[in-house]
């Protein structure tokens, strides 16, 4: 397993793409906070200079490419014709992806702090923000919120990539999940109106989880018609299910 | 005990048998040619041996250890190049070797391997693989197959894209490794090249092994053929056929087989006052033998 991880990191660090992702993650908040007057606010700082959406997009693309590229290059055969089990190969890919997500969050965070210090002089990070605490707490919650969403979207992307062996469809679906949230929300609400049981549909659960931190728990319960705890459990079940399906397809596939 | 034992392996896709009771062995230090037409099951067999594909029944044993879709513990000492080389476009040749060498504690010496597989010249080792020609990729693929100092190397069409000099050098490399005890299982459509290289042949057709033999045994079954050019091929053909020998005219030359010896053929033709202008003895042609064997197998079905 350690060998596999070493190999995955070796391949990743030899790709210019990784450095471009990380540099863009750093530059994005610097540019947003530096250029736009409207971004010189606590809200923008907490959203890491609006770079969280970039981090999500990059995460989706990285996830989709992590396996589909091996098929595209024809390198999947030597990868799977070694002493390692397919489970180990799959997990090494997941761990690499998680490392890259952490790198993306870190670069965006550092870029935001630097941009705040330079372009919003005198900004007080200890000032109270909303009901969650000070700016540091709010930033942490924003990152956690996006990270939790990313785990879900990444599971979906990984599952679709394994099903169709192509990154295009998976990236498309992942992007839709992020940028078309209002449309998904409307469709989901219409479906729930028709059949209340559909409140358990994965998109509704995803939308509910995306709203944690933005809506107070009591309001959330009223809106979602389920407790926050039930929503989190459903969310976890969906994540496990999607990663499980992705793994099963990967394990069974003849190459 | 053979290094690789493939025993009664079956693989079905729906009703179609991709591997039909496939059995053969590969001994240490032997070069085995896995030969057959397109779709015969060569790549399928190689994929089953390398654990890339499940099989319905049977056993594959490497060095006494079972190899299955889920059990890869024996694969450490098998190198392979199946269908096309596994190349990451953004890595150099040297980086590829470093990457794949991480799999083992005792990899081959990079410099020696690069020299042997000719990936040491023209800054080859330092250039990104996306700029490689087909032949360069192929040579790198072969180097990757050898990096773990394998006991068995599986090569599917290894001569693809190689120039004549590289084909010659690859042949020499394979032979020298085989002399050192490494076994090879090679499939190729370049039968002339294969004929110069392999010790044993395994012929596969429609997923079924139709012959396994050493090259000597394989050709000992082959009939000697004579190619003649006469001043009247049509009449000569008629005379030979009257003797119950097999004959045909191919590219303006008479192909004769079935006689006990060449003298019988010459005597029969001379008796008809036909002049023989040139004469060649052709025996042990892998391509011709394979085609005859496949034709007979296809007719039998």
Automatic annotation (TrEMBL), chain A:
GO cellular component terms attached to this protein's record: plasma membrane
Gene Ontology terms, MF aspect: ABC-type transporter activity
Pfam families xrefs: ABC2_membrane_2
Name of this protein: ABC transporter permease
Keywords assigned by UniProt, alphabetized: Membrane, Transmembrane, Transmembrane helix
Segments traversing the membrane: 20-39, 51-73, 94-123, 135-158, 170-192, 230-250
Species this chain originates from: Leuconostoc litchii
Phylogenetic placement of the source organism: Bacteria, Bacillati, Bacillota, Bacilli, Lactobacillales
Automatic annotation (TrEMBL), chain B:
PROSITE patterns according to UniProt: ABC_TRANSPORTER_1, ABC_TRANSPORTER_2
Alphabetized UniProt keyword annotations: ATP-binding, Nucleotide-binding, Transport
InterPro entries with a match to the protein in the record: AAA+_ATPase, ABC_transporter-like_ATP-bd, ABC_transporter-like_CS, P-loop_NTPase
Domain ABC transporter: 4-231
GO molecular function: ATP binding; ATP hydrolysis activity
UniProt KW Transport keyword: yes
UniProt similarity note: Belongs to the ABC transporter superfamily.
Listed PANTHER family: ABC TRANSPORTER, ATP-BINDING PROTEIN
Protein name: ATP-binding cassette domain-containing protein
């Amino acid at each position: 397993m350690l060998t596999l991880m070493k190999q995955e990191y070796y391949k990743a660090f030899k790709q210019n793409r990784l450095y471009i992702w990380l540099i863009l993650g750093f530059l994005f908040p610097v540019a947003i906070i530096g250029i736009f007057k409207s971004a010189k606010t606590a809200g923008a700082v907490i959203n890491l200079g609006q770079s969280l959406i970039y981090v999500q997009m990059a995460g989706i693309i990285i996830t989709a490419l992590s396996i589909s590229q091996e098929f595209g290059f024809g390198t999947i055969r030597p990868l799977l014709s070694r002493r390692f089990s397919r489970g180990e190969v799959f997990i090494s890919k997941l761990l690499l992806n998680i490392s890259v997500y952490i790198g993306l969050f870190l670069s965006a965070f550092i870029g935001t702090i630097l941009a705040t210090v330079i372009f919003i002089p005198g900004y007080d990070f200890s000032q109270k923000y909303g009901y969650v605490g000070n700016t540091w707490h709010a930033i942490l919650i924003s990152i956690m919120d996006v990270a939790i969403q990313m785990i879900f979207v990444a599971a979906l992307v990984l599952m679709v990539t394994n099903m169709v062996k192509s990154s295009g469809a998976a990236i498309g679906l992942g992007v839709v999940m992020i940028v078309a949230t209002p449309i998904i929300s409307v469709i989901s609400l219409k479906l729930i109106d028709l059949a209340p049981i559909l409140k358990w549909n994965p998109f509704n659960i995803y939308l509910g989880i995306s709203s944690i931190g933005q809506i107070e728990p009591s309001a959330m319960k009223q809106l979602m018609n389920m407790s926050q705890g039930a929503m989190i459990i459903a969310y976890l079940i969906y994540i496990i299910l999607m990663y499980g399906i992705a793994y099963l397809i990967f394990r069974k596939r003849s190459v | 005990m053979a290094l690789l034992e493939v025993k009664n392996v079956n693989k079905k896709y729906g009703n179609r048998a991709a591997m039909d009771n496939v059995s053969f062995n590969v001994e240490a230090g032997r070069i085995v040619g896995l030969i057959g037409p397109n779709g015969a099951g060569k790549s399928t067999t190689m994929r089953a041996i390398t654990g890339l594909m499940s099989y319905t029944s049977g056993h594959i044993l490497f060095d006494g250890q079972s190899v299955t879709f889920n059990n890869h513990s024996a694969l450490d000492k098998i190198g392979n190049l199946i269908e096309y080389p596994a190349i990451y476009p953004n890595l150099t040749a040297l980086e590829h070797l470093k990457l794949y060498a991480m799999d083992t504690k005792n990899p081959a010496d990079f410099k020696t391997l690069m020299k042997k597989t000719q990936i040491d010249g023209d800054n080859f080792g330092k250039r990104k693989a996306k700029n490689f020609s087909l032949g360069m990729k192929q040579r790198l693929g072969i180097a990757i197959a050898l990096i773990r100092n394998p006991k068995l190397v599986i090569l599917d069409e290894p001569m693809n894209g190689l120039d004549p000099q590289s084909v010659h050098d690859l042949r020499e490399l394979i032979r020298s490794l085989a002399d050192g005890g490494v076994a090879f299982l090679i499939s190729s459509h370049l039968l002339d090249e294969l004929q110069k290289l392999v010790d044993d042949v395994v012929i596969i057709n429609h997923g079924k092994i139709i012959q396994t033999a050493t090259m000597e045994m394989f050709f000992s079954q082959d009939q000697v053929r004579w190619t003649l050019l006469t001043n009247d091929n049509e009449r000569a053909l008629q005379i030979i056929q009257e003797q119950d020998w097999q004959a045909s005219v191919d590219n303006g030359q008479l192909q004769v087989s079935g006689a006990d010896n060449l003298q019988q053929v010459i005597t029969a033709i001379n008796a008809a006052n036909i002049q023989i202008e040139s004469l060649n003895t052709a025996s042990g042609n892998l391509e011709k033998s394979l085609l005859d064997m496949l034709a007979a197998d296809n007719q039998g079905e």
